[in-house]
Write a structure and sequence with these properties.
This protein has about 120 residues and is mainly alpha-helical. Helix content is about 60%, strand content about 10%. The radius of gyration is 21 Å and the shape is elongated. The N and C termini lie far apart (about 55 Å).
Length: about 120
């Protein structure tokens, strides 16, 4: 992911937009935990019509987060995790930022006197 001017590429923007939706994150979780699945098996996990889920799957496909394989009349979806590694790379400096902040808070709390008024 680019770190220059703050503007991401269209591919990066698609990944973040795909991840912004709870239904799409749940689809990714299901594929991560249970492996490739037919669209109907995925649809059984949601209280929505299949065309609506198909729209979510299309967004995930266009972001490169899932791939689709046809097997007869079925469409099997598989998690493609590579774009998530790019998201993790983008988030890493923020994790470091918060880890440093929490360490600073811990250090401050360690320096405060204990309140033993029993």
């Amino acid at each position: 992911m680019s770190t220059g001017t703050g503007t991401g590429t269209a591919a990066e923007d698609r990944v973040f937009a795909a991840l912004a939706n709870a239904t799409r994150r749940e689809v990714l979780r299901l594929l991560r935990e249970r492996g490739p699945q037919p669209v109907q098996v995925l649809a059984d996990h949601f209280d929505m019509r299949r065309p609506s889920l198909s729209e979510h799957l299309k967004v995930l496909r266009e972001a490169g987060l899932v791939s689709e394989q046809r097997s007869g009349r079925q469409r099997i979806y598989r998690l493609e995790a590579a774009p998530l590694a790019e998201v993790q790379d983008w988030l890493h400096p923020y994790e470091r930022f918060w880890r440093d902040r929490l360490k600073g808070l811990g250090d401050l709390l360690d320096r405060l006197p204990d309140d033993d008024r029993s």
